[in-house]
Design goal:
Helix content: over 70%
Structural class: mainly alpha
Distance between the termini: 92 Å
Strand content: under 5%
Shape: elongated
Mean pLDDT: 77
Order of helices and strands: HHHHHHHHHHHH
Number of strands: 0
Length: 321
């Protein structure tokens, strides 16, 4: 009898504990759901803000032409789009991107400052610079992809302009043979023009989406041509001639950039050699000596920025010209 009572009491305790654990798990799930809902709402708000910002800037460009001064947030919007990051990560927007960058810089600085001011500043700067470099290099990669397609793009425009006077029909035919990022930009232009009936606005938006100055020139000429009902063939022939001149100049610039990179690399090498030679002037080394004072650490950080800037110029030179 006592055993039965004991087992009943034990079963009751287990049941109560299980109920408590289940309630806690449910509450945690609800809390997680609330957090997820909050995150989704904030992301949706940020996404709507980004869309409104894009529409406002694009409307200004359509009404007043090319806007030299654009807001910082809009420039980041465009950079993220042209880098292809927003296609790979649809949830990514400017507000979220800046939040990630700021948090990363703060964490890097806190970790680095435990060792020295120089380490903290260097870690913080490198953290922010990495994000900038990723976006820039992805934009440069898309720029090169666009550049490789532009000659074929104009050549196909020329061929299809002989059989049709409708620029939308020409674009639709040409888009079948294009690759990214031009393919989606041309298709979106056709879809927007068909939906709104405003071909000029659709073409201007297409030129904004694609980061290449020659492509922008070609689209601008075609847009003017569409408004004035001019002959597309003449405009396309002129664009082809300008494009050939651009390609010739680009090849010459590549040779000059190659020589400039060699010069920068040589200067960096000489600077590192000089610093190594100065390191022998102190028994503990010039690097440790400079880290012992705030002024020395600031000087080291300045030298670090100089070397990093030189390396960056060597890598980015000629990427988007």
């Amino acid at each position: 009898m006592s055993r039965l009572i004991f087992f009943n009491i034990l079963l009751a305790i287990i049941s109560i504990l299980s109920a408590i654990l289940i309630v806690r798990a449910v509450n945690r799930n609800k809390a997680l759901e609330k957090v997820n809902e909050g995150l989704k709402k904030n992301l949706q708000k940020a996404g709507k803000a980004a869309d409104k910002r894009k529409q406002k800037e694009e409307t200004l460009r359509i009404e007043d032409g090319s806007q030299e001064k654009a807001s910082l947030f809009y420039r980041i919007d465009v950079s993220l789009a042209q880098s292809g990051l927003t296609k790979k990560f649809p949830f990514l927007n400017t507000e979220l991107f800046l939040g990630i960058v700021i948090v990363s810089i703060a964490i890097a600085f806190i970790i680095g400052i435990r060792y020295s001011l120089f380490a903290g500043m260097t870690a913080a700067f490198l953290s922010g610079f990495v994000y900038y470099a990723i976006v820039y290099l992805l934009m440069a990669a898309n720029y090169k992809k666009t550049e490789k397609q532009i000659v074929n793009f104009v050549d196909m425009l020329k061929n299809y302009s002989r059989t049709s006077d409708d620029i939308l029909t020409i674009f639709k035919n040409v888009s079948l043979y294009l690759e990214e990022p031009l393919k989606s930009a041309v298709n979106e232009c056709c879809a927007e023009a068909a939906a709104t009936g405003d071909l000029s606005a659709a073409m201007i938006r297409m030129s904004i989406k694609v980061e290449h100055k020659e492509f922008k020139k070609i689209v601008a000429n075609l847009e003017i041509c569409s408004r004035r009902k001019a002959n597309y063939s003449e405009v396309i022939d002129r664009s082809m001639k300008q494009l050939k001149d651009y390609v010739a100049v680009r090849e010459e610039n590549k040779r000059m950039v190659g020589n400039a990179r060699k010069t920068i690399l040589m200067m960096i090498g000489i600077g590192i050699l000089c610093f190594y030679m100065l390191n022998d002037l102190k028994e503990e080394g010039i690097l440790r000596f400079m880290q012992q004072s705030i002024i020395g650490q600031i000087i080291l950080f300045y030298l670090f920025l100089t070397v990093l800037y030189s390396l960056w110029k060597m890598l980015s030179m000629g990427q988007k010209e």
